Structure to design on (473 residues):
C-alpha cells in the first residue's frame, strides 16, 4: 500500500493523469490517501498547479478541505501560498473553505498576502472573504502586505477593495503604517502616507510610526511627505506650458500691442481666452475614466480567473476588465476609455471624452502662434525704422528675437503633433494604437504589413467628419 501511495503522490506532483486514474479505478489507492506527512494527493496537485489531477480527485469525492503537512494546512493554503489562482478558483468552486486556519492561525488569504500573491488575494475577496479578515493575532492582509511585500501591487489592490488600513493588531497595536516602518518598506510607507493615514497613532508601546522611524533613523522624510516627491516632476511640463503662455501674453502687451492693427489685437485676445478655457477644460475634466462598483469588480475578478483563458483586458491595477480600446495610464493610475496618450503638457490623459477638444486646442495654438510670429515681424519692421540697420535692430530688440525663435520652434512642434493626430484620426487610430499596433489583434497580428493596409484607409475624410461629430473613430 505504501508503494502505491508513493507512486500516486508522484503522479499527482508531476501531472500523470492516466497513471493516477488507473490506480483510482483499480482501487489501489483512495482519493483521500495521505503520505507520511499526512499530505493528501490533492495537496500535491494544488502546490504543483495540476488542475486536471485536482479535478480528477474531486470527481472521485476526495476531501477538498483535507488537513495535512507540518503546518496542518489545506490544499487551498498550499495553492494560495504559491499564487496558483486557477487552482484556488477550482478548489473554491468545489466548496473549499477559505476560513480554515493552519497551526499558525493563518487563513488562505493571509498566506497569499504574506507571499505577495495579489491575484489570489483579489480572487478570495471577490468570493466573499473580507479584505480585513484577521488571523489569530488580528493581523489583516493589508498589514502583511505592508510588512512583508515590497511591491506596491498587493497593498494598492487591497486599498482599491476598501481594506481598512487604520486597523491595529491585537498583539502589538500596530497599524499598517507601523508595520511598514518597522520593516523599512519605503514603497508601502509612501503609499500609506499619501492616503492621509494618521501617522500619530500610538501602538501598545505608545509609539507612533513617526517615533519608530526616528528611533530607527530612517524614513522620516518619507513620513513627513504627503506625496512622493518624484510625482512633482510630473507637474514640470504643466508648469512650463502655463509659464510660456504668460511669457507670450507679457511680450504681446508690452512689445506688440501698440504697433499692430486693432483686429489683430482683437484676434489675439479672443483666441487667448478661448485657448485658456479649453486648456482648463482639458486639464481638469474627466478624459474618460472607466470605473465600476465594488460588486462589479468582484464579478469581473471571479469571471477572469474562473474562465479557461485569462482575459488580457483585465487590469490588475484597477481590478476590472477594460472595454475595447481602453488602456491603463500609469501616470493617472486609471483606466481610460479609448486611450490616446497621457499629455504631460496638460497634466491629463487624452481619451474618449476630451480627444476632440485636444485637437481643437492644437489647431487654436497654431493660429495663436502665427499671430504672435506676425506680431514679432511687425515689431522688427517698426524698430528697423528707428535703428536703420538690422544688427542694431536685433541688438536693441533681443527679447522679441527670443520670442520669435521660441514661437517658431513651438509652432513646428505643434504642427507635427497636429498632423499626427489628424493622420491617426483619418485612419481610425489612437496614438497608443499606432505606437503599439503589434499588440492589438484588431489592427494586425502579423505586424507592419497588415498594419500598413489598415493605415492607408481611403475613408480618411469620412473618419475625420465622424470624429468632429463626436462619434468614435
Amino acid at each position: 500500500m505504501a508503494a502505491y501511495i508513493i507512486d500516486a503522490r508522484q503522479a499527482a506532483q508531476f501531472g500523470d493523469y492516466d497513471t493516477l486514474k488507473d490506480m483510482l479505478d483499480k482501487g489501489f489507492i483512495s482519493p483521500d490517501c495521505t503520505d507520511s506527512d499526512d499530505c493528501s494527493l490533492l495537496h500535491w496537485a494544488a502546490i504543483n498547479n495540476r488542475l486536471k489531477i485536482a479535478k480528477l480527485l474531486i470527481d472521485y469525492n476526495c476531501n477538498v478541505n483535507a488537513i495535512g503537512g507540518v503546518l496542518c494546512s489545506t490544499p487551498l493554503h498550499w495553492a494560495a501560498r504559491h499564487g496558483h489562482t486557477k487552482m484556488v478558483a477550482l478548489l473554491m468552486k468545489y466548496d473549499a473553505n477559505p476560513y480554515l486556519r493552519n497551526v499558525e492561525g493563518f487563513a488562505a488569504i493571509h498566506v497569499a498576502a504574506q507571499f505577495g500573491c495579489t491575484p489570489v488575494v483579489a480572487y478570495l475577496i471577490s468570493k466573499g472573504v473580507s479584505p480585513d479578515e484577521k488571523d489569530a493575532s488580528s493581523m489583516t492582509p493589508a498589514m502583511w502586505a505592508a510588512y512583508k511585500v515590497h511591491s506596491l501591487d498587493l497593498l494598492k489592490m487591497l486599498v482599491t477593495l476598501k481594506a481598512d488600513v487604520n486597523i491595529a493588531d491585537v498583539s502589538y497595536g500596530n497599524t499598517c503604517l507601523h508595520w511598514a516602518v518597522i520593516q523599512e518598506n519605503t514603497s508601502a510607507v509612501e503609499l500609506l502616507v499619501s492616503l492621509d493615514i494618521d501617522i500619530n497613532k500610538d501602538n501598545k508601546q505608545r509609539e507612533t510610526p513617526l517615533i519608530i522611524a526616528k528611533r530607527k533613523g530612517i524614513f522620516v522624510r518619507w513620513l513627513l511627505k504627503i506625496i512622493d516627491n518624484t510625482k512633482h516632476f510630473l507637474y514640470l511640463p504643466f508648469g512650463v506650458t502655463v509659464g510660456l503662455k504668460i511669457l507670450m501674453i507679457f511680450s504681446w502687451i508690452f512689445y506688440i500691442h501698440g504697433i499692430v492693427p486693432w483686429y489683430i489685437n482683437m484676434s489675439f485676445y479672443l483666441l487667448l481666452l478661448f485657448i485658456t478655457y479649453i486648456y482648463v477644460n482639458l486639464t481638469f475634466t474627466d478624459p474618460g475614466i472607466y470605473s465600476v462598483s465594488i460588486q462589479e469588480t468582484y464579478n469581473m475578478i471571479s469571471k477572469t480567473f474562473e474562465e479557461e483563458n485569462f482575459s488580457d483586458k483585465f487590469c490588475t491595477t484597477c481590478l476590472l476588465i477594460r472595454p475595447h480600446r481602453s488602456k491603463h495610464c500609469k501616470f493617472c493610475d486609471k483606466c481610460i476609455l479609448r486611450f490616446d496618450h497621457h499629455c504631460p503638457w496638460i497634466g491629463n490623459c487624452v481619451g474618449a471624452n476630451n480627444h476632440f477638444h485636444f485637437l481643437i486646442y492644437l489647431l487654436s495654438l497654431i493660429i495663436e502662434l502665427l499671430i504672435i510670429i506676425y506680431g514679432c515681424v511687425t515689431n522688427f519692421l517698426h524698430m528697423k525704422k528707428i535703428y536703420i540697420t538690422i544688427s542694431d535692430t536685433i541688438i536693441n530688440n533681443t527679447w522679441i528675437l527670443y520670442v520669435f525663435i521660441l514661437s517658431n520652434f513651438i509652432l513646428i512642434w505643434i504642427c507635427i503633433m497636429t498632423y499626427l493626430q489628424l493622420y491617426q484620426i483619418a485612419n481610425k487610430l489612437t496614438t497608443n494604437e499606432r505606437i503599439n499596433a503589434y499588440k492589438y489583434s484588431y489592427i494586425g497580428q502579423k505586424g507592419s504589413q497588415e498594419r500598413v493596409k489598415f493605415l492607408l484607409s481611403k475613408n480618411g475624410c469620412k473618419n475625420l467628419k465622424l470624429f468632429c461629430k463626436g462619434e468614435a473613430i
